[in-house]
What we know:
seven-stranded mixed beta sheet, 53% helix, alpha/beta, single chain, elongated
Amino acid sequence: MTVPSATPDLALAAPVSSAHSRITAAGLLVALGIVYGDIGTSPLYTVRGVFVTQPVTEPVVLGTISCIIWTLTLLTTVKYVVIALRADNHGEGGILALYARLRRLPLRRLYLPALVGAAALLADGLITPPISVASAVEGLRILKPDLDTVPIVVAILVGLFAFQQFGTQIIGKLFGPVMLLFFSMLAVLGVVHLVQEPSILRAFSPHYAIRMVTQVPGAFWLLGSIFLCSTGAEALYADMGHVGRQNIYGSWTFVKTCLILNYLGQGAWLLRHLGPPLGEQNLFFLLMPKWALLPAIGLSTLATIIASQALISGSFTLVIEALRLRFWPKVKVQYPTELRGQAYVPSVNWLLCAGCVGVVLYFRESGRMEAAFGLAVTVTMLMTTLLLGYYLRLRRVAGYWIALLVGTYVLIEGSFLVANLAKFSHGGWLSVLLAGLLLLVMLSWVAGQRIRNELTEFVPLAEWLPLLQQLSQDESVPKYATHLVYLTKAENAKEIENAIIHSIFRKRPKRADVYYLVHVNTTDEPYTRRYHVTHVLPNELVRIDFYLGFRIDHALNYMYRQVVADLVKNHEVDITSRYASLRGQEVVGDFQFVILNKTLPYQYLLRGWQRLALRLHAGLKWLGSSETESFGLDNSTYEVENVPLQMPPRPELLLTRD
């Protein structure tokens, strides 16, 4: 007979604030070091990319700087700083955090734009570090034109990725001061040239941007390079949880001012050097006097390393979020320091490292990398715009305001996307290929899980409780363990997978004194740590439901031990050994986890696309970490057992007996 008894939900740990509630000097400095690396280093290559082959004329110079000013204003300031930062999920930002908040909407395919955006953002992570570091190091060619910078760039990138396993707690303290110095350098350089050619201030009028795009032949395609000034906006949104919305508000004004001053300075220099295209010359370093060149190159290289570090850490965070939301295969995650948000994903780290080195060796020049840069981020921005529309709908904003906002940004970002498509044959195909492969990984994992879940059969738990009690007391069956633990996917506490029933009763009978069913719910909140206990059969069957945020590590072994310790403290379970020779000796009984590997014996009975999805899912599962590793189980506490999933009825074979 079932005797349900539940304890109230309990927290595994004190709640962690997901965002700073006020502006602090330390928070502003940290924001400079973490949030703005990507967008802060864009002056190294944005304007230069426009004039590699484009003659330097006044209409194009004024139009380019005007486009940059208004792109930073409309895309970064209005869309991301003003609107997107308010679309947080308990202080966390980014496209997957936004999706996690929207999951409650009754839209079956809402995960698709989130997956597309996440895949494109990860693909961008393979291109941003090479182009940023290469742009800075190539400044050395002004002093030594025949210098081969490729080995230097590769060495910096490999060293950066190799250092990830140790965490960034020490060098992270230098990020803020270095970026403060770098942004100050941007502003000073801009002002020095601005006062020599103040007529560049005309670029504040959007008239020049519109006139260039509509009247200068071929100028529309220059938007592909101009867009690079705002590629870090998505990273700004994703990093909100690390520094807090208020600190981004407080620091963005300073950052934007420094960026615009530098872009104005570059425009002023160009107005005084009208003529042929710049070719391979790096405009950013042409602004500097020779005596300042080496210090500026050194500072710029440090800034690009910081930008790369921020993007690498952001990629780890994105993959972990995708992992918890079940969009990514299970991979090993390490935590090298105690800093919140400081994680290390070895497989992703070395995948990014190989990709970045490959990009450098293939393109060799930062100018050529620009062709592959920007296309993927534009797709991410469009997906974020779409999800922001659903967010505003969730907030009950009037439909015409939503249509106006989404329509405006689809037009702006769509124009950038079309302009970036012109780069496809020159290297843009690489970002599309990378994003496509990453999207295939996520879609295959999602589809495989969905098919397996559909094939999983659940049965009423109450029907098996009497037999479970009899088995537990049947001394003719050798005891399998004192405490036997199964991980269950049954969201309904009144149901259980047929696979677990098969494991306990139909295979080798597993007699235990106490059975535990453990279920994990991933919540929309990022840092939830709660659990709920249901005593289905007092002292015989216990169900534990964990409610973990999508940024929480699923270290079930440690969490389970804490829950059991709490239950013992509250006299809800007895974990002393039940063996006759150890009874009364205060010896803790043995605990055994059973991990079920659910096999598909008759895959040929499924549809073709289902078989393909399951094969891809199985391959990804084999490449990733096992469930025992991802759940933090040590070798002495678990056993993996193969059990069949429910399959479509197999046609009966008409056999004839001789």
